[in-house]
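General statements about sequence and structure are easier to judge against a single worked case. Part of our work consisted of pairing the sequence of a single chain with a tokenised description of its backbone. The amino acid sequence and the backbone structure tokens for this protein are reproduced below.

***
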Amino acid sequence: MIILTKPLGTQPAVNLQQKLSSTKDFNPPEITKEKIKHAYHLAMESMATLNKNSSLLLKKYDSHGATDVTGFGILGHA
């Protein structure tokens, strides 16, 4: 069983926000600047959230291991 305790995709949100902040003419056709800012806000909120609920789930399901998927993604950790 795999339990995802936080949403995936925070790094792309951070990368887009950094690009938006550092490049004056950055205007990707696929996504609006408002959506980038919103995604960044949600990513920061998620990363600042404590893992209390996650630890309760680990205990509930008698987990024998855990990992974060930052940098490698689910496939890389599988």
Notes: The chain has a mean pLDDT of 84. Residues 18 and 24 are 11 Å apart (CA to CA). The longest helix spans residues 33-47.
